[in-house]
Amino acid sequence: MKYAVLGTGMVGQTIATKLHALGHEVMMGSRARGHEKAVAWAKGAGDRASEGSFAEAAAFGERIVNCTAGVHSLAALAAAGDDNLAGKIIVDIANPLDFSRGFPPTLSVCNDDSLGEQIQRAHPKAKVVKTLNTINCLLMVDPSRVPGSHSIFVCGDDAGAKEEVLGLLAEFGWSRGQVIDGGGISFARGTEAYLHLWVRLYGVFQSPDFNVELKVAGKAGQAS
Ligand SMILES: NC(=O)c1ccc[n+]([C@@H]2O[C@H](COP(=O)([O-])OP(=O)(O)OC[C@H]3O[C@@H](n4cnc5c(N)ncnc54)[C@H](OP(=O)(O)O)[C@@H]3O)[C@@H](O)[C@H]2O)c1
């Protein structure tokens, strides 16, 4: 499968590297072709790896993974171009963290809206599936970094798109029992707001290698 990974940061690099290792074709997208980090990634990865602008990557990818800074994701996806996103799944990993007033960050959108919903509204022909945003990027692609079973969330308005993303999550090592389907994209209000807890737990543990496990009475340890 051809993937566009939008973003050159830690998450973009980690997701692109994993997708590439799984045998996919990956183009890393950034604000302008020739971004130093994207060029270095593509060169290091070799065959099936390339880089380009957000628009070039989105045109290339059959699936899009949004790994841009959340406060800039709408701009990045606008630059990617609505036509290049139409009909495609956008796996949205971004969190709308605003560090402009220091640490801990605030959320630039919350309560009665979310970044996931904003992206879906901005690109109604795309199928936004929010997932993996509640854990560190190394854990996203290697759940065994945290021992035992632990949970991640998936949400989005298109059931077929979510099913496809479950397949991608399985490629990353997540079993179905670990994935909680929260329903429509407005569930992202909850998973994005969870970052208030995540950043504080990071301070408590002094490590990003942690996750929660949800258990529901009478449902054999899983909520979906
Ligand atoms: N780090 C994690 O483990 C983790 C875990 C869960 C979710 N997330 C979320 O995943 C996303 C990526 O995180 P990250 O840690 O890799 O890096 P990040 O610093 O949050 O984002 C880096 C990416 O955003 C782009 N960007 C910054 N300003 C931009 C703008 N004005 N217009 C367009 N693009 C812009 C950067 O491009 P330039 O290089 O050109 O500046 C870079 O490609 C974030 O939304 C984050 O909240 C991160």
Task: Describe, in short, the structure shown.
The protein is an alpha/beta fold and 224 residues long. Helix content is 38%, strand content 18%. It is globular and about 50 Å long.
Give the integer mean of the pLDDT values.
97
Shape annotation? globular
Give Rg in angstroms. 17 Å
Total number of beta strands: 10
Q: Return the CATH class.
A: Alpha Beta
CATH second-level architecture:
3-Layer(aba) Sandwich
Q: Return residue spans where pLDDT drops below 50 for at least 5 consecutive residues.
A: none
CATH topology: Rossmann fold
End-to-end gap:
28 Å
Order of helices and strands: EHEHEHEHHEEEHEHEHEHH
- Report the sheet-strand fraction: 15-25%
Number of domains in the coordinates? Answer: 1
Mind describing the biggest β-sheet?
A: 8 strands, mixed
- In CATH, what is the homologous superfamily? NAD(P)-binding Rossmann-like Domain
How does this model look, in words?
With 224 residues, the chain is an alpha/beta fold. It has one domain (2-205): NAD(P)-binding Rossmann-like Domain (Rossmann fold, 3-Layer(aba) Sandwich), CATH 3.40.50. 38% of the residues lie in helices and 18% in strands. It contains 10 helices and 10 strands. It has helices at 10-21, 36-45, 54-60, 73-80, 82-85, 115-122, 137-140, 159-172, 188-193, 195-205; strands at 2-6, 25-30, 49-53, 63-66, 89-92, 97-98, 106-107, 127-131, 152-156, 179-181. An 8-stranded mixed β-sheet has the order 3-2-1-4-5-8-9-10, sandwiched between helices. Strands 6-7 form a two-stranded antiparallel ribbon. Helix 4 (73-80) packs parallel to helix 6 (115-122). The radius of gyration is 17 Å and the shape is globular. The two termini are 28 Å apart. The relative contact order is 0.13. The mean pLDDT is 97. NADP nicotinamide-adenine-dinucleotide phosphate binds at residues 7-12, 30-31, 35, 67-70, 72, 75-76, 93-95, 97, 133, 136-137.
